[in-house]
Amino acid sequence: MRIVLVGPPGAGKGTQASFIASHLGVPKISTGDIFRANISQGTPLGVKAKEYLDAGQLVPDELTIDIVRDRLSQPDAVAGFLLDGFPRNVAQAEELDEILADNGVTPSSGKAYLDVVLDLEVDNDEVIKRISGRRLCRNDSGHIFHVDYSPSRDGAVCDICGGELYQRSDDAEGVVRTRLEVYAAETAPIIDYYREQGVLTTIDATGEVDVITGRAFAAVDAARG
Predict the structure, then answer these.
(1) Binding-site residues for AMP
(2) Binding-site residue set for ATP
(3) Does the CA dihedral 75-104-192-179 come out positive or negative?
(4) Each residue of 138-152: pLDDT tens digit?
(5) Domains recognised in the chain with CATH numbers
(6) Is this entry keyworded Transferase (predicted)?
């Protein structure tokens, strides 16, 4: 299956993407993960991407599209994939259709090259609370805490490895608000784009993680027929 997840920052796309990709046996392709890996490695792409992300802005289309085109050409993505973080605007959505056509994909119905687009919905206040309260371990251990939902015992140190906890620069409340404004202006219009193609399913992304996952699985299974 060819799947795209859309939704505001903090909607839980990364978490649900992992579960859905595992459920279907397809690769999860996250442009955010690719950018962050390049940032941590100090690559030229990472340096450019960091400037935009730190300001709460989207990475320019040309950089993002080149990465996605290369990734979707790899053998493990031929039979299907789950995209998280792309497309972020209508121009990218149209470019994705062209990439898939160039890769020999035949539209599944009408002009739709994707099987399903899952729109994870959550209100802005909840997004701000989720993201601005997130704290990461500086030891690159991957451990993540939240000041409200899953706090560390002393608030400043990782319970697991003892590393210092910090707030990522693009998780600051002011930046999150900017990210939400950018989402509303740039990304939300693709919801109509995919609704017109008949592949959009909206999912309530509030509540317990496993409940949201159940909603996502039901939507994916319905799309599979």
Answers:
(1) 31, 36, 57-59, 85-88, 92, 168, 179
(2) 10-15, 134, 144-145, 207
(3) positive
(4) 986 678 999 998 999
(5) 2-224 (3.40.50.300)
(6) yes
